[in-house]
Structure formats: C-alpha cells, structure tokens
Amino acid sequence: MKRFVSLSFCAAAIVALTAAARLAPAQGIFPLSPPVVSTVPANGDVNPYGVVIVPKTIQNGLGLHAGDILVSNFNNNQNLQGTGATIVRITASGTVSTFYTSTAQRHGLTAALGVLSNGVVLIGNLPTADGTSATVGAGLLSVLDSFGNFLGNIGNVPANVDGPWSMAVDDLGSGGSGTAHVFLSNVLSGVISRFDISYSPVNLGAAVTVLATGFNHRLDPAALVLGPSGLVYDSVHNVLLVASSTDNAIYQIANAATATTTQPATLLFADAVHLHGPLDIGILPNGHLVVANSDGSNADPNQPSELVEFTAAGVFVGQMPIDPNNGGAFGLAIRNLGWGTFQLAAVDDNANTLKLWTSVVQ
Amino acid sequence: MTLNRILQLLFAASILGTTANASVVVFNFDRDNLGTTTIFTDTDPLTGISATFSSTADPGGFVVYPSMFQTLTGNVLGDPGPAGQNNLTLDVNFSTELSAITLNFATSDFAAPSPLTLQAYQNSILVGSATLPGMFLSGFPFPEGEIAFSGAGFNRVAISSTATDFAVDNITVATAPEPGPLSSFAVGLICLALGARRRKSRSSAASNN
After folding, report:
1. Which listed residue, of A193, A231, A232, B34, carries a Cα 20 to 30 Å from A290's Cα?
2. CA distance B49 to chain A (A)
3. pTM for the predicted model, two decimal places
C-alpha cells in the first residue's frame, strides 16, 4: 500500500514552512496537493462521511493514538444510503483497518463523529431500510471505546438525538480525564444539542442541553436529508457555527458552551454563489473558515465538490474542488499544529478516499 | 544579548542596592541542538548558573527551533513541541536567586497581539509579575515584544500567554547581589558603632552604681 503520510512532524520544518509562507503575499490556502488513501473497508462500505483526527491529548496506551484518523461510512457495498456500518482507522503510518462495525439499528454512520481524550469515540447514525428517505430512522448516538467496542448510547431519542448528522467537540480534558462539550446537529428535527460530558479512563457521564431549535430541515430524494449539518466550535468567542445545507448559509450560536437554556441562532452569512449544500465546516488557525459543499442543494456543475475558504466574517477567499464531479465533498477535519501550520483531512464521497494536507495559512 | 540589556539589568540591580558581585547571564538556546525538548537544563559556563525549562505537557511541551522572528534570533524555545499541546505555561527554575529578568517573546497571533505574562516566584511564593502584549513588526508575521521584571528576589518564573502558542529567547537574568566591599565596610562600621554604644552604656551603668 502506498504510504499515506507521516503525521509526526519536525517542529523546525514546520516553523520554516510557516515563516516562508507567512512572508509571501497574502492569499488563501488553495490549491493544495494531498496524499490520498482509500476509505473502503473489507466489507465494501462506501460514501465516507465523518472525519476526525485523534487529538494529541489522548491518553497513552489506548487502541487509538494521537494523529490517527477515523472515517465513518454512510453507505454499504451496494451504495445504499443509511446502511454503512463501518468506521475506518488510518494510522499515522498510513495503515488502514476497520475500527468498528455496527449492528443493524446503528447503520448509516454519519459525520457525527468525535474522539475524547480518554479514547472514547462518539458516533451518530441515521439508518434507512432501503437507502431512500422514505425509510429514514432517527438513529442513535453511540459510545465506543478506543478499540472500537460498543459501550452504549447517550442522549434521548428524539428529544436531543434525532438524525445525528454532524458533531463538534470542545475537549477540556487531557490524558484520560476531564470534561468536554459535545455539540450535535440533528438533521431530522432542526435541533442542536449540547452534551456536557465528564469522563475518566473508566467512566463517562453526560448532561444534555437543547442549545438551539428551528433550523430548516427536510427529506430529499437525492441528498436523503437536508438541514443543520456541519458544526465547529470557536472557543475564543464561545460561539458555535452551524452549516445549513438547506439554506446555503452559516449560522452562529452565542454562549454555546455555557448557555443553560435554548439560544437563538443568528445568520453569520449566506452565499448562494459559493455555498452548495454545505455539509461540514472547520476553522483554520487564522480564524478563516473552510466549508465542504455536498452539492445536495444549490448545485452548480461548474463548481463541483468545492472546499471553500471564507474569512471569519464570511468573505469568500478561495475554493478548490475535491472531486471533478458534484457530490464528492462531505466531512472534513482541521488540526492546528501551531504558528499557522495546520492539517486538513477531507473525504471524497465519489472516489471513496480521504485526502490529507499539511499547509500553513497566509 | 546586547550591551544595552546588560546595562539595563545592572542598573536594575544597582537601584535595588549594591551592584557588588551581581552577575548577568543570558540563556539564548543557541548552544542547544534544534529539536531539544522540555525538560532540559542550560548552564552558563562562566558562572555555573543554570536554568531548567519545563511544562505540564512534558516530555515535549516546548521545543528549540530556529527563529522566524526579528528580535528573537538564532534558536528560540516555543510551543507546541512534539507533545502537540497548546496554551502551555513555560516554567523556568534557576539555580540561584535572581533580582531581574528580561526576555524577548513572540505570540502566535494573526490579529490583535495577545499579552504575555511573566510571574516571578521565590520557591513557591509569588513575588511579582509583569504582563505585556507584543506588536507586529514590519516584514515579520507574528507580534513580538520584550518583557522585564525586577524587584524582590526570585528563583523561578512562569511564562504564559492567552495566545495559542508563544516563543521566548534571550532570557537575560541578573543574580541577586551579595555583600560587596562597600557594603561589608558599612556593616563593619555599624558593628563597631553598636559595640561602642554597648561599652558606653555599660560604663554609664557602672558609674551610676
């Protein structure tokens, strides 16, 4: 197998890269040329959705290691939506293996995927019986250990778990113990939930707050579902950003980690030119946003599968197609390596691959 | 290390009392190998004074790397190191008591510069602190600044910032002054005066009896 990329890095090289790039004329991050790895496991699942990079704060001696990448598959080997059962693990050395295989009621693994510092993996699913929106179920939010063993569920269906579609994790812990705010978008109800989690190496407890309601959402014969999708938490401003694949807009929720009651979601920006069913969103070290367009709504054949960079205020900076055809972009994850250097991991649904870049913001 | 900085520290030491036997030492990481990570100790070859650098994310919280800054030169010490953790505090333990410290720093800001805070301790007791944001310098990507503290004796500093990461260089310290010839002479005079006064009071008491 082609060696993927070494996620370990030399600080000196990164700093040199940072210095050289930062002194160049100001511009966006695109285009980038990434290494690529297949996300198809042994059972043939396809349509990778969720992406998460295991944090550096993870406890030592677990099944997962810092820098590993997990990818969840939404479709089975017949390419039926909502029937994928696997999470694939890609190690820093590029080794691909099946991390988790779900049972029937937990099929249709989505971009609601996160890892805590004690190695616990949270994964949401949105199952269908036949791959169509007519048979969509509410799904669950499952808890796995760091070896991919199923431990149980958290949340209540449908009050705060109803089509878990994407996730953002604000983990305040390190080395096995701590607290975390886990934000969950529910595409079947238009609700954003927050799970306040306390965890140790052997325990996990969660309290749930309905953080926001009223996001537009609907079933769709092609995209399956549209609604509140990608989430990213801005810890500097205590704001949660929500990408809406229905509205082609980015919303913001203030006091996201601290509010004890439901908060209003206000429009940060809408962009019918550059947003095409935005499914996932991340924050670069300089505060810019990267949005993955699913093309599930407002599709433009001339702008297929774009990863789009905006300023923090929503001004378009640049974009790059992750696939030459529509419908390829979905989950992404960004890891800040320091001094403007970052890793960006993003899936290509069409090619069933993960692409990984290491670059530096301008 | 500049002559100006040495003079500044000597002045700081002088206004605290005597300058006798005070030493000025610079820790600039230029003799450390690139990639050296906390915990590690640097020792000044002339004075034998050492500084031990550490963080809560060790091993590998901070790392020595080449400067990409203007006022931080040669090698610098910054986070994130191989441990990959941000928002760390850098602890520096010195082998002797100090009276003053100054250092250059940079913070990983893209907009408003974040303040850097330096807290000075005598063992575990906080004796003072200083806080200062850097500023963007033309042609360089990150804000830089110089922060100083002098006053009560201290043997440890904790350096932190609200920025995600920061780097330091040219850590220049002045040791706490020891009694020199002038101060020893003054102490001697005081002792002689106290002795004379005691003899005088004894003889006065004897005559009264």
Report:
1. A193
2. 28
3. 0.83
| 8 Å CB contact of A10 and B86 | no
Q: How many domains does chain A have?
A: 1
> Does residue B111 sit at the A interface (CB-CB below 8 Å)?
yes
Q: Is A142's pLDDT higher than 80?
A: yes
Tokens 């930062």: give the residue: A22
Element (H, E) at A53: strand A46-53
- Shared domain check, B102 and B10: yes
Average pLDDT over residues B117-126: 96
Interface size, chain A vs chain B, as Cβ–Cβ contacts under 8 Å:
59
Phi-psi region of A248 (alpha: psi -120 to 50; beta: other; left: phi over 0): left
Identify which of A294, A286, A295, A279 has the alpha carbon closest to the alpha carbon of residue A333: A279
Task: Confirm if A57 and A171 have CB atoms less than 8 A apart.
Answer: yes
Q: Angle at CA A141, nearest 5°, toward A140 and A146?
A: 135
Query: What ipTM is given for this predicted complex?
Result: 0.71
Kind and range of the H or E run holding B147: strand B144-161
* Bond from prior residue into A264 cis (ω within 30 degrees of 0): no
All residues of chain B having their beta carbon less than 8 Å from the beta carbon of residue A56 are 80, 83-85
Does residue A2 fall inside a structural domain?
Answer: no
- What is the C-alpha to C-alpha distance for residues A166 and A186, in angstroms, rounded to an integer? 8
Residues B199 and B169 in one domain: no
Fill in the amino acid letter for B140: F
Of B66, B85, B164, nearest to A12 by CB-CB distance is: B66
How many whole angstroms separate alpha carbon B74 and alpha carbon B31? 10
Task: Considering only the beta carbons, identify the residue of A12, A16, A339 that sits closest to B165.
Answer: A339
CB contact under 8 A, B108 and A285: yes
Q: Could you tell me if A172 lies within 8 Å of chain B, comparing CB atoms?
A: no
The reply to whether B104 and B183 lie within a common domain is no
* Domain residue limits at B158: 3-178
pLDDT one-digit tens code per residue, A164-217: 999 999 999 887 889 999 999 999 999 999 999 999 988 899 999 999 999 999
The residue in chain A having the minimum alpha-carbon distance to the alpha carbon of residue B65 is A12
- Co-location of B129 and B188 in the same domain: no
Handedness of CA B34, B38, B44, B45 (dihedral sign): negative
Q: How far is CA A264 from CA A207, A215, A292, in A?
A: 20, 10, 24
Minimal CA separation from B150 to chain A, in Å: 30
Quote the tokens at residue A362: 């301008």
> Domain of A141?
11-360
